[in-house]
Here is the input.
Amino acid sequence: IRINPEDEYKINKIRWKFPKDIKSGNILHITFCVCKGGDIHQFKEKLKDIPLVVEFRNYYWHSERSLTFLQENHMGYCIVDEPKLKGLMPYNPKATTDTGYFRFHGRNTNWFNASLAERYDYLYTPEELKSFLPGIMNISGITGKTIVMFNNCHAGKSVKNAIEMLNLIKE
Here is the structure.
């Protein structure tokens, strides 16, 4: 894995989140709705060379059909880790473009009933972080750029885990 400090202040992707309450049906129809009636190609044209990464939060999007749609439309797939609760996305290290994107939300099992601060109040253990290395290394080997983002942001836990992960990757 190559770490490039020159990318520090550049926009390197736009993440487009589909919240848990948006379920898949007609994936194209939902995509147009999210674009406020616009054409997905017009939307992507406005982005120019900034990669688009889509983050699904509902298990119903977990399908080959969704991955194929993203790949055919040159949109990245956001690989999420979140609590293993009914209705949420599973950890699924796949790439649909030349940008790999991991987003770690934590595993607070009180996800649905918690305040935002409590929801993201989770510190990954060293063992949990190590378990992600094969997926990260695989994705980084097949993409031109791989981004690893920690969103367990309560009380600085994302920074602690990001430093730990960076040290694991460097080993």
